[in-house]
User: Fold this.
Amino acid sequence: MTVKTAIKDVTDRIAARSELSRRDYLDRLDKARDKGVHRAALSCGNLAHGFAACGPTDKAALAGDQALNLGIITAYNDMLSAHQPYETYPDLIRAAARDAGGVAQVAGGVPAMCDGVTQGQTGMDLSLFSRDVIAMSAAVGLSHNMFDAVTYLGICDKIVPGLVIAALTFGHLPAVFIPAGPMTTGLPNDEKARVRQLFMEGKVGRAELLEAESKSYHGPGTCTFYGTANSNQMLMEIMGLHLPGASFVNPGTPLRDALTKAAVKRALAITAQGNEYTPAGHVIDEKSIVNGLVGLLATGGSTNHTMHLVAMANAAGLRITWDDMSALSDVVPLLARVYPNGLADVNHFHAAGGMGFLIRELLDAGYLHEDVTTVWGKGLEAYTKEPRYIEEELSFEPAPKESGNPKVLAKATEPFAKTGGLKLLSGNLGKSVIKVSAVKPENRVIEAPAKVFHTQQGLLDAFKAGELTSDFIAVIRFQGPRAVGMPELHKLTPTLGILQDRGIKVALLTDGRMSGASGKVPAAIHMTPEAADGGPIAKIREGDMLRLDAEAGTLTYLGDERAFLARTPATENLEHEHFGMGRELFAGFRQLVGTADRGASVFA
Assistant:
């Protein structure tokens, strides 16, 4: 299989840019591997503490220093639907490990917060920072140096990127990510969105709104729209950290359990003590990162990954940029229509052929690197198959040759769009990204005066007061990582959608986030430099004419550019936004955090 020149060019640029940092990373990985069986480095007292709570069989196995020990890092909690299924996974993993002649221990737990719960609340200010907390929490669990391989249990927005950063930090250890799957289909996502808009217009009450939301988010599993959580699962599969076809199998099914058991056995088969040593740091390289970017673009995935993938790659010594993403977006076709990019949910996507169909189409058309290392073996070809569980036997069969629903999943020769779902915007206002896959072509260019707000509530208040009656570009600033932790502003989606439906040309410009649920309103997000750093967004004044052109990839102040750039940036006293709901504990993060285009990370 020959990869297209444009894909290879981006891959080569990343490799060249990362030559020194990647070499240093691999040298550190080799040194960690060369220390040998890790429990051998522990004193008797250390080791006794490490297996004190084990049963006699496991204790004897670990004392002998020959049995493999599998670490479990879990994001389980039973408040969040996506992570509730993980409650029973440790027992399942332990049993599967014993069947394979090994031992499994929960190495540690990591926090898992839900942007759906904190949306529009002060707790949202901790959301992005939780990614780096998760990475550090996993590192604490693995620092006991007791494990030959690790399984990672995580699903949602910041959890998987944080776990990947940890897995790559401990890149000498094999890492297998085990998903829990999406909840079954409930109220259609477009109907949920319709009720939300009716509520904002005062046409239905809170009881009707809650009923609709409850029918949509109704049981264990991931939310079924294609936001960051399900983009995470797509990425783990296309980058080779899942088993083939594992991403979108529903919780509580025999196939789900069979895949979990197979993942455990595979993790124990690829340790340094075996013949198929596959450390996480070798699975993730420039080719697998580009494969992940291609998958993100081909499915119209989450805008959050314009930051997360940068941070994840950085943990492996790889340097990627928004320009890399933009170059790929110009050539990668859009092959999936999943809400908010369409009416279907991820269950419909999976039923139409899912990841196996998608990967085969992209491979055959030259958009993916096949010659990569995965936890399942050499080559991405194995991921063009899908799992079956028949008569208590797990097998893998070729994905269907034809899409089960061409309105949801398209062939590479007949894409929904010739270019990807994400775009880089640049100009005299800085850099930002926009998700265009759900935005109609007629709404992708807007030239209008600015309306400036320093909170999303300010815009909502203006809407309720009837002040938003003509075309405008909403500027919501001081929402960046250094200012307040970069919360999502998805609460604005129904309001902006209402205005657009009324015939008003509207767009959003912000240094905050809009999430994988970015919808039909053009939203230039992750603006950098952010307002708190004195970026151009802080110089915009009420009524300034702005132009957002998602087709050309530009975002521009219209007027005397020299005079505009000479303006003194606006400032905002944010002290009141730094206390309450734990935000005071993250002062150090706000000081250390990097810019959005560098991953908004406290590590680099």
Summary: DSSP finds 23 helices and 16 strands in the chain.
